[in-house]
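>> received
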Amino acid sequence: MRVRPARLNAAIAGLFMAGSACFVLGSVPAYLNAVGGWVDGVTYVVGSVFFTSASYCQLVQSQSPSTTAVDEVTQHQPVRVRLWGWLPHDRNWLAAVVQFPGTLFFNISTIAALAHNATAAESDRYVWRPDLYGSVLFLVSSACAVLAVSDRFLSLQPQSFPWRIAWLNMLGSVLFMASALASFVVPSTDALLGAHVAVAGTFWGAACFLVGAALMLPAWRRAVAIATAASP
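>> returned
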């Protein structure tokens, strides 16, 4: 299979932005009131599918060096990609390979959330647990991504696009984790443990992912410009 590196990167950014936008929209109370619970749930499902598609494309990119080591000319030339790889010593690949199953858990949780009249136990088992597992994997993935762009976990590189993207995704993952924890349905009341935290965590976490995905485009242009300037 062959792809143009620039198009693959643009597709990853676009899919992540679309998925994030769906989660931002779905967590806006006015949207829920306007369209109803079922449509709001479908919005989350669609967003999770975008996330999964983007995540798999990013995994392919991370294990196909020919899709990133490009200059102004080669970024538009089709190259062969690896649909499967094993690069456990590459932190970028580790971030991508951990993130992908996390998005699958979000697929499960968002689809399960469409089920009506679920008991508290059913909601916690089929919605909350996959959401929690996905959030944990996103946190681990974000930690790997931060370590991939920094010598030290807390080193400051505010001028670096990869550093900004990695930390935006880390913040988004922390907020998603807060939302997941707050979404636990208390059996005695059938109410969320923290409804406001759940909504706010989803909204602001998705907003962080949206901005991080948008920054992938200028980050790509800068990397290509640097590679072009260094080429003979």
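>> Residues 2-230 form one domain.
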